[in-house]
Fold:
Amino acid sequence: MPPSIERRLASLSWTAVREQAARPRSTVLWPLGAIEQHGPLLPLGTDALFAERVAAAVLERLDPALPIWRLPLQSLGFSPEHLGFPGTLSLPADLVIALVRSVGRGIAAAGFQRLVLFNAHGGQIGLLEAAARELRVLEPALAVLPCFLWRGADGLDELIPEPERSTGLHAGLAETSLMLFLEPATVGAIPAADGPGADDPPPSGWSLEGACPCSWRTEELSASGVIGDPGGASEELGRKLFERLVGSWERRLDALLRSDWPPTSGRA
Structure:
């Protein structure tokens, strides 16, 4: 594979796509992000940049012989919780589902066996999971895997202490540090911690996100758009986060590409 292609599906001819899709375990990875406020310190395209840069680093590290190709970044996503702040652009839920359905059906028609939705925006996790289930019904031969960048990556808990690990939901320590490593010129002055104040959730497991979450609007929680404490953010912490994210997803995708999981109607 020429280095210039970098596993980009759009760089292939249709005949090359037919050949690649016919390979056993052929897989397409689709990075997805959002254009939404990230407080006064981070750019609107934070999630999109994270999805693109981590995906590129992971694919670069994978064995070139493995059958995986990537789609262009989908930078616009589902972000209604942030619409109270200028610059946020949010697609309707039904449009996102229709987009996943349409692109997924094209991937299936080409003959690919798996589609990985590589999402970096927490506000559309559930929506992409629903879209994936709809697509599976329409295309039983296509395995669809809706993944979230920050979910299940090894060793992140060691780097982000509590309570930030649980309550730093947006533009907090982790995201600010990662951006300081990847694109430091885009990071503004670090503001004070912001987010839920006196209105703490009741006991017994209720929280903004988690096992018993609620649907929240950012402007009801934060005046700045930050939900968390970016005060201790650093480039070094961002480097460690990036390495653990990339390493975890490299191992996860390598294992997937060397297996016949998950089962679909397209295989005996």
Residues 20-257 form a domain with the Rossmann fold fold (CATH 3.40.50.10310). The mean pLDDT is 95. The two ends are 30 Å apart (CA to CA). The chain has one domain: 20-257.
